[in-house]
């Protein structure tokens, strides 16, 4: 249990609970937050982390318990009330309005006025200062948010939080959409804010981020705070065990030594794929049972390559062969169906993967319609059995099958997306950085599942921004740079060092900037 400080902390939460219907999202939670410290909140998907911070940020009202700021009881009826008290939040889902400019978004809650009108000049100055404080001075305040890539939008989000002049800054997986360069910048900014005396709450599933940033850690499990300790005083495995409440062993399943049958065509082969100047002369093949990784810095063509294979891009040059025969994949609908039987597991569950107002059952059974219906009639027993299997395999935590997908925690929503695709039993599985926001325990299950699918004959292409994942999961890794494959690493050659060196394309000495 957490040690309680003798002096009163900047912020304290005592015995806070929150239930959603029958689900206990938070159960008698206790938390002390100190000024000048970075406090990591850890826990598996659905442990209650987002609920905790939504309560702190005035988004959700607790059912019971109290909160104290500077030793005084506080309760926030709205996000504006929490913000006025000095609590700002950067959520994992972006809150910016795409059609407005960066400056409008930053000042939206409190625009500066002059003679009753919005003072554009003052607004721009506020935005410039906030962007500079967030280490994003390169973003122009007049740019429309919709014209910025996701990682830059996230920086605007951080600037927006800083513009309210918070004493407590909460970041809920705020770095999961950032490029490595931006993450390094954000970390420097956060450390600077710490030395200015801000209290920071940091939620992330990435253990190396916690190790680098945090001073204090609190672990939540099933809505309760189960441990509180100084960062660095526990090993990673110990921390994970606290999170998942069971023993934790090696994350990655052993890599298989594969022997490809002579004369057998690879399941998937691309020859000289090109698309505008963004994909250039890409050739590779994936055999039955193989997991081939795509590595490199973000934005080097990896996502486009997956879209190209899935039939989304028009006007591609080169050819794709499946089982040795030229494949004419006219679009995603054709890609999904036999004989191709492809699946593309997306990273962005909100726009590509899930129908949030629909129930978990509807989301899942819709995907597997071909497998659960015969002659146009849905076999309910079969549907139930398939869905059950997936819920168990991926440890999806939901109050039931008939709740809307939008009521699941972020990580659990992503698991439903993965389940949805895997239920179709695809033969070619394309994964687009699918484990963002997924807790370490479930990642382990996912890696095992991928291995099993490969062993059952699937061919897998796995793009990941997480080096550990490429090292642990893949038989080979193709590193992309500026739309080309610049290196192919195999077996034990796949190391962090090799991946980083080839990602920067240092050996080839090629000039260029990463997008
Ligand atoms: N609006 C809601 N309606 C119903 N249940 C909810 C709602 N919001 C959260 N829950 C449930 O509360 C529990 C805690 O969810 P919460 O989002 O706090 O988890 P989390 O620790 O942030 O997870 P993740 O790491 O996946 O983001 C989950 O079981 C979730 O399904």
TrEMBL record:
It comes from the Bacteria. Residues 11-247, 257-507 form the ABC transporter domain. Keywords: ATP-binding, Membrane, Nucleotide-binding, Plasmid, Repeat, Sugar transport, Transport. SUPFAM superfamilies: P-loop containing nucleoside triphosphate hydrolases. The keyword Cell membrane does not apply. Belongs to the ABC transporter superfamily. This is ATP-binding component of ABC transporter. It comes from Sinorhizobium fredii (strain NBRC 101917 / NGR234). The lineage of its organism: Bacteria, Pseudomonadati, Pseudomonadota, Alphaproteobacteria, Hyphomicrobiales.
């Amino acid at each position: 249990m957490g040690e309680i400080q003798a002096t009163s902390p900047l912020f304290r939460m005592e015995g806070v609970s929150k239930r959603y219907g029958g689900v206990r999202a938070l159960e008698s939670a206790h938390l002390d937050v100190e000024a000048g410290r970075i406090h990591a909140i850890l826990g598996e998907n659905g442990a209650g982390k987002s609920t905790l911070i939504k309560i702190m940020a005035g988004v959700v009202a607790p059912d019971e318990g109290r909160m104290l700021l500077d030793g005084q009881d506080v309760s926030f009826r709205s996000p504006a009330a929490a913000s006025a008290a000095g609590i700002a939040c950067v959520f994992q889902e972006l809150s910016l309005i795409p059609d407005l400019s960066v400056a409008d978004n930053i000042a939206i809650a409190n625009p500066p006025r002059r003679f009753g009108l919005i003072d554009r000049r003052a607004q721009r100055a506020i935005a410039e200062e906030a962007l500079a404080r967030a280490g994003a001075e390169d973003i122009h305040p007049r740019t429309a948010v919709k014209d910025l890539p996701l990682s830059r939008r996230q920086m605007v989000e951080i600037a927006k939080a800083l513009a309210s002049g918070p004493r407590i800054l909460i970041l809920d997986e705020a770095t999961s959409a950032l490029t490595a360069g931006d993450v390094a910048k954000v970390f420097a900014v956060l450390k600077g804010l710490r030395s200015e005396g801000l209290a920071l709450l940091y939620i992330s599933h990435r253990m190396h981020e916690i190790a680098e940033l945090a001073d204090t850690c609190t672990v939540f499990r099933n809505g309760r705070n189960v441990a509180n300790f100084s960062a660095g005083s526990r090993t990673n495995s110990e921390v994970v065990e606290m999170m998942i409440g069971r023993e934790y062993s090696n994350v990655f399943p052993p890599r298989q030594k594969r022997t490809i049958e002579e004369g057998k065509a690879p399941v998937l082969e691309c020859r000289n794929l090109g698309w505008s100047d963004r994909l250039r002369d890409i050739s590779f093949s994936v055999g039955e049972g193989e997991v081939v990784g795509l590595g490199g810095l973000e934005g080097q063509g990896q996502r486009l390559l997956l879209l190209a294979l899935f039939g989304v891009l028009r006007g591609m040059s080169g050819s794709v062969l499946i089982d040795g025969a030229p494949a004419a994949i006219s679009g995603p609908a054709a890609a999904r169906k036999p004989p191709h039987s492809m699946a593309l597991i997306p990273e962005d569950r909100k726009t590509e993967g899930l129908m949030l107002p629909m129930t978990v059952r509807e989301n899942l059974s819709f995907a597997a319609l071909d497998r659960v219906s015969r002659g146009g009639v849905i076999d309910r027993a079969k549907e139930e059995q398939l869905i059950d299997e997936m819920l168990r395999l991926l440890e999806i935590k939901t109050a039931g099958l008939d709740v809307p997908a939008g009521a699941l925690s972020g990580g659990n929503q992503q698991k439903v997306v993965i389940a949805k695709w895997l239920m179709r039993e695809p033969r070619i599985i394309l994964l687009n950085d699918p484990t963002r926001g997924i807790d370490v325990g479930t990642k382990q299950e996912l890696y095992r599942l991928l291995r099993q699918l490969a062993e059952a004959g699937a061919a897998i292409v796995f793009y990941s921004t997480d080096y550990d994942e490429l090292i642990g999961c893949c038989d080979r890794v193709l590193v992309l740079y500026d739309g080309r494959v610049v290196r192919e690493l195999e077996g034990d050659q796949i190391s962090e060092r090799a991946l980083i060196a080839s990602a920067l394309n240092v050996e080839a000495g090629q000039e260029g900037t990463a997008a």
